[in-house]
Please model this.
Amino acid sequence: MTMEIFEKVKWMQLPRDVLIGHGVLREIGTVCKHLEVGKKAFIVTGRHTRKIAGEKVREILSDEGYEVNLMEVSSINGENIEGVKKMASEDKAEFMLGIGGGTIIDTGKIASFELGIPFISIPTIASHDGIASPRASMKDKDRGSPVSIQAHSPLAVVADTKILSSAPYRFTAAGCGDLLANYTAVRDWRLAHRLRDAEFSSYAAALSEMTANMIMENVKEIREKDEKSAWTVVKALVSSGVAISIAGSSAPASGSEHKFSHALDMIAENPALHGEQCGVGTIMMTNLYGENWQQIREVLKEIGAPTTAKDLGIEEEHIIEALTYAHKINPGRYTILGDSGLTYEAAERLAVVTGVIE
Model:
């Protein structure tokens, strides 16, 4: 009898250092020294986040003998990424730090990946799991739809809860919506595995669901809107990012509910926050799975996150339109929306039944 040769290979990139807590920003020099990333640092930040933490990091690193340069970016696009790469290359940067929200961190993540230098993530808001994942999101320049881009995991994540808790609570609530979305994302992933033989990781799926449970089990604590609530949410966001690293794709944290959110981004004049839209999408997709969508809605309500089109500030018609269009987003990822999506009538019924529209 001949033995079958096992040839499967798995390559996972995970953050080496994760610091979460009060005042940990001051430890950035120690982190850089521990990681041995070199002495030439390049900071990517925004106009507002520069004042919040960017200048502080530059000051700390400069005092510890690092050569530090800084660049502000306002959005994520090819031009800004190339601008960061050009300036970092001219400065002969040995490592990069992204200080800010999702667009800032994703810009730095892509630029550092393409330059082949280490990246350190310093979030100033707890609104999405990209702070620790090897993926980045930006709009396709031709179609206008968001695309998930392979990058690399941050070598370190430094999340100062003092800074995170001082940000508007809306961002933290949005982060909870992004995490609750892991429930339907994992169900979609399992469905794709059964019907389309998509590669599936039980470990990544379990970790992803655990991060959603962390939100479900700590609703009252999160509602306090203090440093402890920021601590809980950012821990879950980091864990969700690690699940993406283990899976080698965003599948454990991005399914039909994310497709709905991305469709809204394209359709609505003034989209809400990504996590807010994902939370509302999770309510509706949970209903499609015949599961307890009411619980998702109640948790979001208690946290203070949107549960209706009105809460999102989006026209009801755009909700229906996004539901009918969502299956066209990232068509290679199979979800409960299938290949043909929802009819207008089915989409309207779903939105009405779940109370998303009246």
